[in-house]
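Reproducibility note. Readers wishing to regenerate the assembly model reported in the main text can use the exact inputs given here. Chain order matters: entities are listed in the order in which they were concatenated for prediction.
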Amino acid sequence: MDAAAVGLLIQASYFVTAFLFIMGLKRMSSPVTARSGIVWAGAGMLVATLFSFFEPGIGNYPLIIAAIVIGTAVAWISGKRVAVTNMPQMIALYNGMGGGAAAAIAAVELYRGEQLPLTVGTLAVIGGIIGAVSFSGSLVAFGKLQGLIRKAWRFGGQQFVNLLILGSALVLGGMVAAGYNISPGMVTGFFALALLLGLTMTLPIGGADMPVVISLYNALTGLAVAFEGFVLGNAAMIIAGTVVGSAGTLLTQLMARAMNRSLGNVLFSGFGDTGSTVAAGEVKGSMKPIEASDVGVMMAFAQKVIVVPGYGMAVAQAQHKVWELCQLLIERGVQVRFAIHPVAGRMPGHMNVLLAEAGVPYDLIADLDEVNGEFETTDVALIIGANDVVNPVARNDKSSPIYGMPILNADKAKNVIVIKRGQGAGFSGVENALFYLDNTRMLYGDGQAAVAQLIQAVKAV
Amino acid sequence: MTGIVALYIFMLAAFTGYEVIAKVPVILHTPLMSGSNFVHGIVLVGAMAALGHADSGLEKTIGFIGVLLAAGNAAGGYVVTERMLEMFKSSGNRPKPGAH
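Running the prediction on these inputs yields the following structure tokens for the assembly.
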């Protein structure tokens, strides 16, 4: 086959890939078809990769194959092994790798030292800086969620320093793109500054805000891929990258809104830092403990129970036990629902994945808007491992740092049972007024052990 | 591909991405983020082209790292998304609690 025909065939394969990607994402946006969506997208990836081997004029096949085999094997095994609770940081890691790859493409093009047309050079530089920031920034996000980086790192004038780094990188990049005295040293300097910017931008952001940041870097990587697609004249990269860029931007906004934060607020302010000490508001009353056996009776004879799970439940690996308890209650004719706050878990939707892992059917799971009207007719609200998302001060205390965040109105239920390891404030460091209400009882203990006791108690009724 | 055609593709793809995600329920936010993370693994084909055309040792080294990272993005993104989505089942697909 001549080169023109091969070129046409590759273009056709990219067309198929773009179609499969968009259909795949479309299917992934409904729980009924989601499972097949990733398979469609996967098929698209396979088609594009296979046909790319036939691109005219390429060599270095042993290197290409070796890199694909090693990269695939390492990521495949780590992806299979990671616990569901740790998936958010793995997404960050894989996303950073994509950003790094986009930056590497830019680097190969720029180090070659040939004068690129101005538009192509500019796009390579922009894609390079975005990709490099996404790479180092995602690594920091991974480190924070994995617990490798514990402190938020801040100093005065940080925004100014970031701006200075960005400015210098843009000046160097602009000179490289314009072909002004290009030397390899300038290209190296450009990438070093871009990588540094990713670090200094992400290190000050607290762990609680990482999901939004990861989502943002996901969108940025998409954009970087699209820009490098322009450089290489590769339609599959332009389409897939842009689709991810815009979808990721929307997803980032949805996440930020669910936390009642603006994106600017997440990126440029310190709240969300786990180590920060927020002045705890004065809360009147006392926490009233209760025994598991009493809770068991209460739940067994309830008409309606709503479970409010938080990340604490996942850390205690209690979701299987919780579902076992709920199945017992359902057998007794109790109406059971799970109420999920948009930021329960470490990412919007993360809690749903954890519950799905335990076998909870998704039609028992309700989100905030669906379920909030139901608490008033609920006999027992069981809070397990959740804290800030049920704190009524978000509704009425203007001085509280979480004021204005939409919460689950668990305090409106007739009885509120809180399973908690001990007395302490939530992720944000804010004291929880819910724990001191007259209709609230505290069941102290490790999540899994406490739920196991509840199961025994319900069985004994 | 001429510049203006590329620009059209860019615009239409941006709207497509927005429309595809616009009505997604919260429960799918994390899997969808992971899925879109997989999709930009397409950077692999670009990295392959970059390494395939590389001449000097430096270009080959960077190209190799690029392909390695891109393959990791695609493979890891796929596995994690697939594992997440595998768990989504409605109560219609499984025996009802208590029914033996």
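We highlight two features of this model. Residues 35 and 81 of chain B are 6 Å apart (CA to CA). The helical segments of chain B are 3-22, 29-39, 43-52, 57-86.
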